[in-house]
DNA sequence: GTGAAAGCGCTAACAC
DNA sequence: GTGTTAGCGCTTTCAC
């Protein structure tokens, strides 16, 4: 209980009968120190439980061994895995990780970046929230703090970025549906708030255009990215006269909602409607049939982002790189030809 | 790009033609400062983009506004939610959160605590990994660093703790199975590595004892907490001669594994076997039928832990509190009487 | 090889 | 009211 006074360099210097300078040299193993002295100092330090004071070190020389990470939401498995990977990678370079979710709010993101700046972090990884301008990120760059964007690119921000090919993935997903014979492919999207949603929607439109299918506004539903809203949107979509025969959902929460909505409607997948979702998720392989999805290379994002960040922290001044990782269509059992045709185990999809 | 020299208190003092002390007083709003001076200083500071240097402040006075959190695994939704809640709560007291998973390894936990100590964090929240001794946590306490344990209590460690009633929850779960008429209730558990698993297993044994049912070693399977291992364990359990009629799983990963194993065996829930899992999870309401589970009050853990921590950080010296939150049995559709009896929509469970 | 001394940026007595 | 001064714990020239 007694908040024992922390042992400082001065203490161990005194105990070893050397100057603080000599002690520091011994402990950090630089400069000239007599082998005997060094050994003695090190032993005494160990004995007294000396542990150095990063704060003082940071004040003197550089910065604290701190890196900040701002995901949209740490509860999202996508970000949770990335956080885990960043954590694991960063630990090897003995950096500690500050994590704080922006909850997709720019204001919150700004505050977080602000506090990171005050702490003088060595670098920051952020999944930027949607916003027309981003002065806080620019300020970071301006101060020379290494910054890596993940998941969402930001135009005009000269920094490294790791994202996935959202448009391409969506195009492939919808293409697969079209290849199976669908013409009336619905989509649920998320009000365009986030860049990724916009790109995925663009991919949807692109796939339709590729095959000369006109966009039909009645097949495009808007919902916030929650299970409940997606469920409702699905129900609206399929209660229309002349309903769609297939559905493409822009993220895994929406895919879950779609599943629930379809179930509520008594519609069976893939017999009554075919379904493809963006983003793989654990539930996708538990359903019967399993759900066909566009999988993102989540496991690559964190490690790559860290590698880029460390390079910058080491002083690299290469021009910013924007890596766009490819997605992968995982064909499972949720796609079949329209009109309750044959089960499509081995269809084009 | 140009790492513009950070503006320091000295700079703004010079620009305002006052001493550093006066400037500091104006900026931090303490002590006597002339209103005019204060205003001028503040304006100049804003103009120059002064932002103070927490590191220097910390060196001088107290500590950095840092709190550490060591979950077992940030990817586990249980910990992800807690992390989210801690983050949200802590933000209000303007603390930044360091998060690093122990991966259930004491060695890693020790290293993390070590680095937190070096950073002089204000407090630590940890889900302690299984270990006979915990010198690093004791050291923390000894230094007077506030520490709150979550999810797992540690005997003999005089600090606050928030856990759930694992034994009681398990007892209720198994009791429910027994009430439905089951006598041969199997359990899959996790090698006793973690305290929670041990308590849940004790609850299982307790429920059996309550009803005069003898423990049967052949009904107790060991598996690590992974879907794959639990799947195998389930298959082993139900391939025996005289197989169980009900199954209790100790966490959600295992429940998923059990579902898969049962499906592989062609066994239907709850007709052929009844199932109750510890820990609620999203999939539990997607399956047909939905799975009966023992739900933990996850949403309470983080906020409560933070409240306790903040109190300690404010200097409270109350005796340590150990709060054990109650669990709740959520009766869904995975329990029925044994022997393919009637569907148990409204059975005792 | 080792010690003395000068700060890093900030705060808080204490003097004026 | 405001300035002077003395450090917080550490690193790092620069003498010796």
UniProtKB/TrEMBL annotation, chains A, B:
<protein>
    <submittedName>
        <fullName>Transcriptional regulator, LacI family</fullName>
    </submittedName>
</protein>
<dbReference type="GO" id="GO:0000976">
    <property type="term" value="F:transcription cis-regulatory region binding"/>
</dbReference>
<keyword id="KW-0238">DNA-binding</keyword>
<dbReference type="Pfam" id="PF00356">
    <property type="entry name" value="LacI"/>
</dbReference>
<dbReference type="InterPro" id="IPR000843">
    <property type="entry name" value="HTH_LacI"/>
</dbReference>
<dbReference type="InterPro" id="IPR028082">
    <property type="entry name" value="Peripla_BP_I"/>
</dbReference>
<keyword id="KW-0614">Plasmid</keyword>
<dbReference type="InterPro" id="IPR046335">
    <property type="entry name" value="LacI/GalR-like_sensor"/>
</dbReference>
<dbReference type="Pfam" id="PF13377">
    <property type="entry name" value="Peripla_BP_3"/>
</dbReference>
<keyword id="KW-0804">Transcription</keyword>
<dbReference type="InterPro" id="IPR010982">
    <property type="entry name" value="Lambda_DNA-bd_dom_sf"/>
</dbReference>
<feature type="domain" description="HTH lacI-type">
    <location>
        <begin position="7"/>
        <end position="61"/>
    </location>
</feature>
<dbReference type="GO" id="GO:0003700">
    <property type="term" value="F:DNA-binding transcription factor activity"/>
</dbReference>
<keyword id="KW-0805">Transcription regulation</keyword>
């Amino acid at each position: 209980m007694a908040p024992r006074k922390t042992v400082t360099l001065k203490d161990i210097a005194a105990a070893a009968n050397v100057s603080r300078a000599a002690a520091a040299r011994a402990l950090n193993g630089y400069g000239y120190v007599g082998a005997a002295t060094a050994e003695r100092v090190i032993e005494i330090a160990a004995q007294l439980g000396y542990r150095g004071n990063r704060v003082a070190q940071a004040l003197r020389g550089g910065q604290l061994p701190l890196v900040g990470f701002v995901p949209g939401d740490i509860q999202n498995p996508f970000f949770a895995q990335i956080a885990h990977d960043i954590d694991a990678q960063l630990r090897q370079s003995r950096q500690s990780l500050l994590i704080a979710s922006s909850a997709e709010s720019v204001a919150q993101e700004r505050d977080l970046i602000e506090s990171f700046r005050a702490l003088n972090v060595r670098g920051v990884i952020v999944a930027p929230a949607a916003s027309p301008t981003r002065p806080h990120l620019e300020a970071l760059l301006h101060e020379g703090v290494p910054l890596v964007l993940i998941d969402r690119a930001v135009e005009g921000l000269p920094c490294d970025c790791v994202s996935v090919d959202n448009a391409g993935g969506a195009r492939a997903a919808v293409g697969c549906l079209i290849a199976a014979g669908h013409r009336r492919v619905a989509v649920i999207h998320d009000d365009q708030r986030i860049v990724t949603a916009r790109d995925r929607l663009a991919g949807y439109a692109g796939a339709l255009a590729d095959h000369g299918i006109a966009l039909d506004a009645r097949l495009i539903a808007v919902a916030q990215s929650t299970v409940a809203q997606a469920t409702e949107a699905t129900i609206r979509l399929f209660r229309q006269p002349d309903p769609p025969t297939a559905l493409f959902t822009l993220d895994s929460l929406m895919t879950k909602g779609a599943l629930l909505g379809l179930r509520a409607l008594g519609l069976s997948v893939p017999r009554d409607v075919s379904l493809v979702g963006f983003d793989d998720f654990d539930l996708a392989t538990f359903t019967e049939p399993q759900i066909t999805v566009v999988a993102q290379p989540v496991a690559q994002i964190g490690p790559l982002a860290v590698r880029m960040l460390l390079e910058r922290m080491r002083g690299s001044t290469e021009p910013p790189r924007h890596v766009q990782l490819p997605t992968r269509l995982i064909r499972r059992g949720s796609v079949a030809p329209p009109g309750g045709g044959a089960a499509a185990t081995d269809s084009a999809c």
